[in-house]
Input
Amino acid sequence: MTPSNRPLSPHLLNYKFPLIVLLSGTHRATGVALSIGTLLLTYWLGSAVYGPAAFDRASGLLGSPIGYLVLFGFSFSLFYHLFNGIRHLLWDVGWGFELPVARKSGMVMVVCTLVCTLVTWAVALSH
Amino acid sequence: MSMRPPLARARGLGSAKDGVSHFWWQRLTGLALVPITFWFVGSVVSLAGTDYAHFRAWLSHPGNTTMMILLIFAAFHHAHLGMQTVIEDYVHDEGVKLFSVIALKFAAFLFGVFSAVAVLRVALVGG
Output
């Protein structure tokens, strides 16, 4: 076999992980997280059926440091899946398939997610 | 045993008309969840740190009861369709796959119905 000058691509040493791939995988990961997190909604609503004591206990659990950490992850996942979901719906009607557009809409989506998550927590903690 | 190939046997019978059912409901519930999610986040933020009586009064408001029931239906439907896709992608053993999908659907119905009952009890019966 004669050696060729053709590039070895994708090569481990110069392979650049595409942003779009990472964003797509995160969409699925946040979806799985939200599916499990929906049980928190069931727990919260369910506690109200069992009276004030049970509701306060649920509120206390969700308001604990670990509860806050879980709720922060939940809110981030929710906003991420929401904004990227809108991006998916736009793809479904045929908008934004071109690579530069998809990359740009991905970055807009990430910024929207971070801003909304932080604003939500700023407002929630301010009262 | 028929000598006719599968394609020849299927041809001319027409489709079952529900081939895109999973795809369609995933998009429809996703679209519905866009405004519902903004309502939900706004509501939870305004309810942060609230007591039982205020929560009950809030949930008893007809608009909030309606939105919460819609949220429960859309969220559990959307979540179970997404999780079904994840299971079908990663579980390769047919038996385990079938069992997982059935368990997932039963669980989605169970938690979804319980959540809805909780909302209606708190809103209509008062806990």
Remarks:
- Chain A has a mean pLDDT of 92.
